[in-house]
Each structure stands twice: as structure tokens, then as C-alpha cells.
Amino acid sequence: MRSKLPQNKLSIFAVMSKMAAQYNAINLSQGFPDFNTDPKLIDLVTQAMRNGANQYAPLAGHLPLRENIAALVQDLRGAAYDPEQEICVTVGASEALFVAITAFVHREDEVIVLKPAYDTYEPTIELQGGIPVPVQLDAPYTKVDWDAVAAAITPKTRMLILNNPHNPSGMVLKDADLKRLEELVKDTDILILSDEVYEHIIFDAQQHRSVASYPGLKERALVTASFGKTFHTTGWKMGYCLAPKALMAEFNKVHQNTVFCVHHPTQVALAEYLKEPKHYLDLGSFYQQKRDVFLNAIKDSRFQFKPSEGTYFQMLDYSAISDLNDVAFAEYLTQEKGLASIPVSVFNKDNRDDQLLRFCFAKNEDTLLQAAAILNSL
């Protein structure tokens, strides 16, 4: 049998979570909370089921949900999207990313990917016969070298993928970043695929700057978002995509032939839940408190760190503790010390090792303090 992804291996998230279970380790590897969502949201889903929302939803999603998404984006980003023709509800942001790449990347097209990068981008590009063009950021990956990005652009560049806030570093792009990108793609046919799933998880009074807020980017951008990340429901796999009418028409052709539509009662529930803005506006302070508990607890450890600006991930530099490569050190930490993390090299170009591990702090305080005790013991 000839594989379409011969180099693709089991996801590092699956590997480390399996190892965490095997060794009964605290799991700060995979990005999911160890606490439940708001009971009100669960009740709304149940109510929608009982009220009969159990058949196919419209292809683009439950219209009241799309209308409320449009209102949210207009309010927070100052960007207008037509809920009828420019918004599509998807099976999590993962489907939105897959569909966006599939719809627009042709064989031999080049796609610029800023590394470290989420590990589904490049395999999806390769499945379409496209060519990933990695641009490696320097550790700790909190600044984009836009000159390097400019140098990577060729006549074959079809798309550039952004992740903002950035996983795994927690970097939040600034106004100057988006304006420079806007200038770089001006007078080109380059599309922007902007993965903004952590858009509401921003710390220290910073602001999330979406590509949707910049006219020169919005006109060529597909923006993906995640209700799972926002409402602590990663297992529900609910997300959406924003794009101008012409791009969304092509997006929906692939979406239609991938899943057609998304879980109907959950869409009905989310439409109602979004009517209360505090459900997403309070998210930054909620997770900043968890970040600060974790970092305060390890401030006297031998790990070095820069506080995450966004997401619910924190990178730690262990170079003062061990000379092991990050995969080996992550395995040691899981097997011998009972704490699972993610080695960052797996997201880098050519598995570049900067001796950094990523830890998820979307956990209860007791879990974070137990993890901190282990880190302080090293």
C-alpha cells in the first residue's frame, strides 16, 4: 500500500496522553480542561434536544448562531460578516482548517507556515499536493521575523497560515505585526488562513488583534475559531469560519462534501448562550488567574520562562536542569516524575530542539500546584 502521508506519525498529543495514563502522571500535555463547562450550557443543549432540534442543520449552520457570531465579531473586531453568506459553523476549528486548505491549495502551491506550528497544518497541505514552506521562529518564539517571511514568498505562494494567539509559545501578535503582513501581501493573490482559536484568552490587558480587523487582510482571509476552547467543551468539536463571500462559497463546497453540517442541538444552545457576552469576555481573567497560580508556584524552580501572553499554555526552559533533548526529557518527566508535558521540538522545522516543554494550565488549582511541586523538585 502506498501512503499519502508516509512521514506522518501518531500525534504527539496522543503519545504523551497515553504515556500519562500508563504512568498515572498528571497530564499537562494535551490542551483540554480538567473541569466541566457551565451547567447552563449543558442544560441548553439538553433543552434543544427535547425541543426537537435533532435533524440536519443547514449546511452553513443554525442561522441564529451565525447571526450571533456576526454580532460578536462586529462588536469585538469592528468587522462586518454577512451571517447568510460569510460564516460557516464547523466540526471544531480542525475541520475549518482542513476545509480551508483543501478548498484553495492546489498541487505544487506553496503555503508558508510559521514554526513552531500546530501539527495538522502541514499534513493537510501535503494531502492536497501542496508544499509547506516553513519559516522558523527563534526561541522563545515570541517575535515574528517578517523579513524572513518576506523572503519565503515566491510566485507560487498560495497561502500563509497564522496562529494568533500562538500555540505553543503564547505569543500575541501586535498591531505592527498585522500591518507589516498587510503590506507584504498587498497586490498579491496570497490568502491568509488565520487560526484564532484562543482569541478570548489574552492576558495582562493586551488586545487580540484579528486579521478581520485589517481591511487588506480581511479581504483575503479565512478566520477559524473554536467554541470548544472558549467554553471548555473540546469534546463537542464546535467551531466556525469567517471569510468574504467569494471565499466562503468555495469553502462551503468542500464543507458540504466533508460533513455537510454540524451537531444541531449544540448549535441551538450556543446561539442562546452567546447572548450573554460575559461568557466569553471573562475568559482572559479566568485563565490569567490559573497562569499566575502556576507561575507563582514555580518562580523559585530552576526552570526559566516568560509568562504566556495568551492561550492556556506555558513554555518552560529546562536547559539549566538537563542536557537531554526535549523528547527524552518529556519522557523522563512523565515516567519518572509523574508529570506529562509536550516537547516543543515536534512543532519545529527539522525538529529543532531549544530545550523547551509546553504545559497546559487549563486545570484546577490543585492540579497545577501538584504539578508545580514536581517541577520544584528538579
TrEMBL record:
<dbReference type="InterPro" id="IPR015421">
    <property type="entry name" value="PyrdxlP-dep_Trfase_major"/>
</dbReference>
<dbReference type="GO" id="GO:0030170">
    <property type="term" value="F:pyridoxal phosphate binding"/>
</dbReference>
<dbReference type="GO" id="GO:0016212">
    <property type="term" value="F:kynurenine-oxoglutarate transaminase activity"/>
</dbReference>
<dbReference type="InterPro" id="IPR015422">
    <property type="entry name" value="PyrdxlP-dep_Trfase_small"/>
</dbReference>
<keyword id="KW-0032">Aminotransferase</keyword>
<keyword id="KW-0663">Pyridoxal phosphate</keyword>
<keyword id="KW-0808">Transferase</keyword>
<dbReference type="Pfam" id="PF00155">
    <property type="entry name" value="Aminotran_1_2"/>
</dbReference>
<dbReference type="InterPro" id="IPR004839">
    <property type="entry name" value="Aminotransferase_I/II_large"/>
</dbReference>
<comment type="similarity">
    <text>Belongs to the class-I pyridoxal-phosphate-dependent aminotransferase family.</text>
</comment>
<protein>
    <submittedName>
        <fullName>Aminotransferase, class I and II</fullName>
    </submittedName>
</protein>
<dbReference type="InterPro" id="IPR015424">
    <property type="entry name" value="PyrdxlP-dep_Trfase"/>
</dbReference>
<feature type="domain" description="Aminotransferase class I/classII large">
    <location>
        <begin position="25"/>
        <end position="372"/>
    </location>
</feature>
<dbReference type="GO" id="GO:0005737">
    <property type="term" value="C:cytoplasm"/>
</dbReference>
<dbReference type="InterPro" id="IPR051326">
    <property type="entry name" value="Kynurenine-oxoglutarate_AT"/>
</dbReference>
